[in-house]
Amino acid sequence: MRRQRGNPAGVPGDRSFDVAIAGLGAVGSAAAYHLARRGCDVVGFDRFRPPHTLGSSHGQSRIIREAYFEHPLYVPFVQRAYTLWAELEREVGRQLLRQTGGLMIGPAQGMLVSGAQRSAELHHLPHEVLSASEIHRRFPALSPSAEMVAVWEPRAGVLAPEQCVGAHLELAARHGAQVQFDEPVVRWEADNSGVRVSTAVGMYHARRLLLCSGAWLGTLLGGCAVPLTVERQVMFWFAPRQHAADFDADRCPIYAIEDAPDRMFYGFPDLGDGIKVARHHEGEAADPDHLRRTVTAQEIAAMRQLLQRFLPDADGVLRTSAVCMYTNTPDEHFLIDFHPRYPQVLIASPCSGHGFKFSAAIGEVLADLLTDAPCAFDLNPFRIARFAPAR
Questions:
Q1: Which of 102, 164, 190, 245 lies at 20 to 30 Å from 339 by C-alpha?
Q2: CATH topology of domain 100-157+229-328
Q3: 207 contact partners, CB below 8 Å, separation of at least 6
Q4: CA distance 358 to 77
């Protein structure tokens, strides 16, 4: 049951909350929504004013896909996310997800196609395997190499990340959550009564603390040795050079292409701002407070080379580019676990560049864990213990 609320202007004091949240991006905003919806007294903090362009949850579009090449264990998780995104759309009254279908393209035995096919077959997902000529016939914007094939899945599509974060925060506040923008968490201390959270403004107390500050998580781990790395990622938006209609969302799905062994890039239809494409991983190591946001001519040229090979009509004028960050674990699987020394502190996310689509479901899982409710998913693959050094 929610306690009587105080500090309506958000002034810190001796008030105690059920849960404090450090970071209100994709995961933190979703957790705030699910917790507040259950009647928890929640306060959330962000160093900026989300949704913003300074972290990992921006860029106008994020892919959602079901035939998950990374591992079949993610399929039930993303299926729950589909349900929760639809519920969020209904509650906020805005479209957040657009279904376009999706193609995972590459060599038949490559990581992308074989992984997607494995997940599709194991979970009995609707899908087709297409030859290179079939891909080009059905989706003329794409020109894969002759030896390539694709797994086509009809349920894949596009999420609007800024709108998703905004919807979760709007509804979290509507359900009673207190959100504090431009107020980073700088440290915390746990004791028998819970957690004292110090921000750039003041001090708060909560029974439990959720740490989900993305690229800044490493500064808040409280002695927990998790080997996280931050990676700079560049996104590009090109105008079509010709045949612009081929890139419309009703003729061009989302896609990922394995252009060399274990290397891939991904892209979207033209949703009104150009054809968005980006390399997946291979970015330089980064400091989130000193991120290089200028995109070089060499980076643009490298992306143009990929377009000329696989989407030649997309190689038009560069409309814009943007930089975001991946926060990676060594095995590129998620991190969802309680702090090994402080059971009142939950650590979440570092999604290694593939987590936004799950954030609605991750928020629900975190709410389960923070309220001692049953969780529908096996979280063992996401535990901190897997990073323990071999003895």
A1: 164
A2: D-Amino Acid Oxidase; Chain A, domain 2 (3.30.9)
A3: 16, 17, 18, 19, 193, 194, 195, 344
A4: 7
DSSP 316: S
CATH class held by domain 16-55+162-227+331-387 = alpha beta
Read off the pTM: 0.95
> H or E segment at 97?
strand 97-99
- Asked if the peptide bond before residue 8 counts as cis, ω within 30 degrees of 0, the response is no
**Burial status of residue 5 (CB atoms within 10 A of its CB: 0-12, 13-18, 19 or more):** exposed
The 10s digit of each residue's pLDDT in 224-234 is: 988 999 999 99
Element (H, E) at 301: helix 297-310
Domain ranges of the chain: 16-55+162-227+331-387, 100-157+229-328
- Tens-digit pLDDT profile for residues 164-201: 999 999 999 999 999 999 999 999 999 999 999 999 99
| For residues 68-78, average pLDDT | 98
- Strands 194-199 and 97-99 turn out to be unpaired
DSSP string, 13-53: SS-EEEEEEE--SHHHHHHHHHHHHTT--EEEE-SS-SS-S
Which residue type sits at 196?
R
In tens, the pLDDT along 239-269 reads 999 999 999 999 999 999 999 999 999 999 9
Name the residue with tokens 């694709």. 150
Output the six-digit token pair for 219.
Answer: 């500064």
pLDDT in tens, 206-218: 999 999 999 999 9
Pick the closest to residue 164 from 302, 277, 47, 63 (CA basis). Answer: 63
Nearest to 283 by CA among 274, 292, 271, 272: 292
At position 154, the amino acid (one-letter code) is P
Calculate the alpha carbon distances from 41 to 18, 88, 172 in Å.
5, 20, 11
pLDDT tier, 14 (very low <50, low <70, confident <90, very high otherwise): low
Q: Using 50, 70 and 90 to split pLDDT, how confident is the model at 1?
A: very low
